[in-house]
Write a structure and sequence with these properties.
By secondary structure, this protein is mainly beta. It contains no helices and 11 strands. The strands form 2 sheets. Strands 2, 4, 5, 6, 9, 10 and 11 form a 7-stranded mixed β-sheet that branches. Strands 1-3-8-7 form a 4-stranded antiparallel β-sheet, with no helix packed on it. The protein is globular and about 40 Å long.
């Protein structure tokens, strides 16, 4: 059974940092695309960042470039999202998602292209 479990969400002050983890089980991350998405109350789910494991190709939403980074630990089948210089507008539930092939860059931040989803972890940025 393929499963994704997110962790690391928390309440943090503006300007702070968090590291989110997405642990995958039931499949390996090789030749997969893992994406991070977020959803704020009353808003649609939006793509934040994604990594394509066969070439470590990455992509980021314009709103998080230069502040967020994505990485993976192949040995532990885990993908990380490092959130720096957090802003109140970064608040939301963060989900990781996976698809078992390599997406093109234009597809990597689009939720319908992913088959498997975690249950999410809450990130709240507030003073």
């Amino acid at each position: 059974q393929l499963q994704l479990v997110e962790s690391g969400g928390d309440l943090v002050q503006p300007g702070g940092s968090l590291r989110l983890s997405c642990a995958a089980s039931g499949f390996t991350l090789e030749y997969a695309t893992i994406g991070w998405f977020r959803q704020a109350p009353g808003k649609e789910r939006e793509g934040v960042s994604s990594i394509r494991t066969f070439d470590d190709g990455t992509t980021f939403a314009d709103s998080v470039k230069e502040r967020f980074t994505i990485s993976r630990d192949t040995a532990n089948n885990t993908v990380f999202l490092q959130l720096n210089s957090l802003k109140p507008e970064d608040t939301g539930i963060y989900y990781c998602a996976a698809v078992r092939w390599s997406l093109t860059r234009s597809m990597m931040l689009q939720p319908p292209n992913y088959d498997y989803w975690g249950q999410g972890t809450q990130v709240t940025v507030s003073s």
